[in-house]
Amino acid sequence: MEQENLAEKLFKLNSSINDWLTDTKVLVNEIKARQDPRRQFNLWRNSSEGKDWKRRQHSKQERKCALCGDYVHIRYAHIDHIKPIAKYPALALALDNLQLVHPRCNLTKGTTTTFAIETSTHCARPLEKRDSND
Ligand SMILES: [Zn+2]
Description:
Helix content: 40-55%
Bound molecules: zinc ion
Strand order of the largest sheet: 1-2
């Protein structure tokens, strides 16, 4: 009986600690992002976490560019900030602010939050052979 209580208490304590760690991690990422958002983003993008995200996101987007809707090879896909880093540094590492796009579509979009679909017809195929710094 006492052992059960102890196990229950430990379980609750453990999940409190996990919640706290998650909150802390989010906070730390926000602070880092505010200090140097582009650098933090690049570090994340090149980490195994970032690469895993890219793989998951690629299949989530059904291998399509989020801007023009055409097929994009994962190797050539750029990670685009829906709300640009320049204007929203705190969202540099926010996963729901990221999407995969063609390099050309990303350049066309620039730092604006809107995108004109008619300008993207030239990029049905991947044009660049490597990941740039987006
Ligand atoms: Zn595109």
